[in-house]
């Protein structure tokens, strides 16, 4: 079964690059009304990832509401950091757009079943799987010479 990882404000704050954390601190000092904005971005991102999992009925949503699938954690983190940087007006590197695009693609693949979250062996039979058809078991085995 796929594991889930907490995706909370302290987790994201701990993962922020030090230069971006300093910029965020200065930004919050200059705009005190934005002091909770990162928490809101984290919540929005977590909701987007959990909603993507919920969309496909074959996926199984973790019961802990503050988690995201571990295999998508890096995408969620990149998306939250990118959104924060854009909101603060930070000039992003050219490849930052592609990181967010990959995260969006990952979300769409989860929604349409291209990436199962999680793969519960009891419900799906595991992957890859093969079941011998019942009629094959009833036939006598052939001997090859």
Summarize the SSE layout with pairings.
Layout: E1 4-6, H1 9-15, H2 18-30, H3 37-55, E2 67-69, H4 73-88, H5 96-111, H6 121-124, H7 134-138
Antiparallel strand pairs: 1-2
Summarize the structure.
Helix content is 55%, strand content 4%. It has 145 residues and is mainly α.
Strand/helix succession = EHHHEHHHH
Provide the gyration radius in Å.
22 Å
Q: Estimate the global geometry from the Cα principal axes.
A: elongated
Record the strand order, biggest sheet.
Answer: 1-2
**How many β-strands, per DSSP?**
2
Number of helices: 7
Distance between termini?
A: 44 Å
Biggest sheet: strands, sense, closure?
2 strands, antiparallel
Q: Overall pLDDT, averaged? A: 86
**Structural class based on helices, strands and sheet pairing:** mainly alpha
């Amino acid at each position: 079964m796929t594991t889930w990882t907490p995706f909370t404000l302290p987790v994201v704050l701990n993962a922020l690059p030090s230069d971006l954390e300093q910029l965020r601190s200065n930004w919050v000092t200059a705009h005190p009304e934005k002091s909770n904005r990162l928490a809101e971005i984290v919540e929005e991102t977590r909701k987007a990832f959990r909603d993507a999992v919920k969309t496909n009925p074959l996926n199984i949503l973790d019961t802990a509401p503050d988690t995201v699938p571990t295999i998508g954690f890096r995408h969620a983190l990149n998306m939250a950091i990118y959104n924060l940087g854009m909101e603060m007006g930070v000039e992003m590197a050219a490849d930052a757009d592609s990181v967010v695009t990959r995260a969006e693609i990952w979300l769409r693949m989860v929604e349409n079943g291209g990436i199962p979250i999680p793969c519960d062996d009891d419900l799906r039979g595991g992957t890859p799987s093969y079941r011998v058809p019942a009629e094959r078991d009833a036939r006598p085995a052939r001997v090859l010479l």
